[in-house]
Amino acid sequence: SYITDATGEARAELTMGSTVGNVVVQAEVPGLEGSPVVFDDLYARAGDAVKMEYVSGNNQSGIGGHPLDEPFKVQVFDVGNNPVYGWQVTFQDIQGGGFPSETQPVLTDEQGIAQTTWILGTENVENIIHAISEGLDGSPIVFTAQAIGGVADSMQYISGNNQSGTVAQPL
Questions:
Q1: Do the bridges between strand 60-63 and strand 141-148 make them parallel or antiparallel, or are there none, so unpaired?
Q2: What is the pLDDT of residues 16-26, one digit of tens each?
């Protein structure tokens, strides 16, 4: 209940709840013409990010020097556990020499998801990748991926030189 001021206006301050989405507010005085007044063009957006959680992509394997089949994914939330849009997350190589296919940092989407496709290092070793967003609970999130085989970086002569044979016959 509010009392009008000298100009006949009543004022109220709205504090948004903890859920993201459309908000409708109704002001009503029973029996008064024009009542109720509905404010329906309000939107509660997510607050600043406070935590990051693992979504998918860990423990993969693939050919060294090639992209993994599944992207690494994390999700960012505000204090009300709402997904946060547009938050920066960096996927960083810790071991293995791989790299992300996207420019870093990446931004979270409407569901609060940040993702990157990882290109494995060329060495036959475990790749360790951190998803980092400074100041968030849960950061860094650690991903691992095993590079199997890899891309050749040199060639070495072993044998087969200094031979002769008959035309159209196996050597």
A1: parallel
A2: 877 888 888 88
